């Protein structure tokens, strides 16, 4: 048998090398937008679904549902890219973030901005299929998202701002489903802001020592030794705000059972952070994905069985 021509073999080897390099680059981009760590998608998704189900009395429009789910993935991914761009000088100095693609040089700052721009444009394209009020809320939400990463230099409560950004999908959901944003929407929004401040303070407790050295602001630093007490107070306010929303929406036993389960999850999180151990604080943070799911199930099941004969 004749061996392949040297030129053909060289081209095949070059093609394989190019494909291997493309796979590495795409993997770096995936890590940039945290597709390997979907916890942020879940934490952003649950308030959006709370809002959609409450706004539609348990029957969201299919197109609106798809726009919001895809929009959550795109928005969270874009937010990670711009966050890493803003923190590119700090991340190499923090133990938890030292392996991020921008911190290691695997992705450049212009590349991160390009990824952010593409994902943001795709999210905007989705929103443009909805009504004008929803579009206006979406543009305001985009401002909240892009400002957040830069607040940590001087604003002592960045977790509260993040809460507004992460919960902005709630008034957007009501706008998309009902073309109005009633008091119920703002009650759920407040609950979302407080809940985000709860779990992101736990997240900030992981980095507290590094952040103190770098001069980065966070609620974990602001609250100091009172961190667990303040988190507990905010957890109580989350449950109270959701209870008020449930009363406004006339939700019943399924929802109240979900709130009781959510309260038990909050107690478990308090147990995890009792010694402020980094690994346990991170576990408490991730446990909040279950809280969001439980609340959503309470809302969805309440409407489901309310409608049953």
Question: Can you describe this structure?
Answer:
- The protein is mostly helical and 309 residues long.
- Helix 2 (39-55) packs parallel to helix 14 (278-307), helix 3 (62-86) runs antiparallel to helix 5 (109-127) and helix 13 (253-272) packs antiparallel against helix 14 (278-307).
- It contains 14 helices and no strands.
- It has one domain (12-307): UbiA prenyltransferase (Tetracycline Repressor, domain 2, Orthogonal Bundle), CATH 1.10.357.140.
- The mean pLDDT is 91.
**Which class do the helix and strand fractions yield?**
mainly alpha
Count of DSSP H/I helices: 14
At CATH's second level, what is the architecture? Orthogonal Bundle
CATH topology label: Tetracycline Repressor, domain 2
Beta-strand portion reads under 5%
User: Gyration radius, to the nearest Å?
Assistant: 22 Å
Provide the number of structural domains.
1
Task: Kindly state the number of beta strands.
Answer: 0
- Look at the structure and give the mean pLDDT: 91
Q: Give the uncertain stretches in residue-range form.
A: none
Principal-axis shape equals: globular
CATH domain class = Mainly Alpha
Distance between the termini: 76 Å
What is the succession of H and E elements? HHHHHHHHHHHHHH
Give me the CATH superfamily: UbiA prenyltransferase
Q: Sheet bearing the most strands, described?
A: none
